[in-house]
Design brief:
By secondary structure, the chain is mainly alpha-helical. The protein contains seven helices and two strands; from the N terminus they run αααααββαα.
Amino acid sequence: MSAIRRKLKNKKAPDGWELIEEVIEDFEQQMKEAVNEEHDKKRKSELTWKIHRLHWEKNRFIYDLMYQRKVMSRELFDWLSREKIADAALISKWRKPGYEILCSMLAIQKGNHNFGTTSHCRVPMHKRASQQRISPDVQSGCISCASGDGRFGGPVWWNTPLEEDGSKAEENKTTWGQAGASDAGGGSSSRDAGGASGSRPAQDLDEEDDMPAEVRQRLAALKDNNRTVD
């Protein structure tokens, strides 16, 4: 039994949880593996970078279902927040202008940075000194989560391709609903790095056309649950 199942063993989950439980468990398993990874040849500051990125991925998955696709019920979202499965503070920030792809709440906690400022990853890359332009944040591994700098719908992480090397969004995100979903070395939601609300980009609609049948069925089931609650 997974850690998350043990945690929720005697708790009644809202309708719709069974449709995303497997994916959330996969994220949790990846985070557990990241914690137990071999630390050889890594700087001390790099040990938590993958964990931060997976945390971002998991919450972006939830955010996408709740606010972009609008297929998750408020009851399920609030339950995920109460059970600390969803990071409500981070997701709330994504809905505010300028924070659409914020990498971590640590990046904006001024007490964690010199001179009471935010992390340099909040500064657009073209406005930085040359020595900081592509340097990752020490805590999160984020190079830039400033609006307009994102790639593949998310922050520029330490391992995000910076050049046009032919990489596709599908290779840099966690795909929901497919067996054995992995972080593929990166990740973002299936949305652009634009605003946190409003119509979804044409790219998202194209991706939805290419969805596996299983993913379509789960999204439809979540949407039906949402309508029932409403």
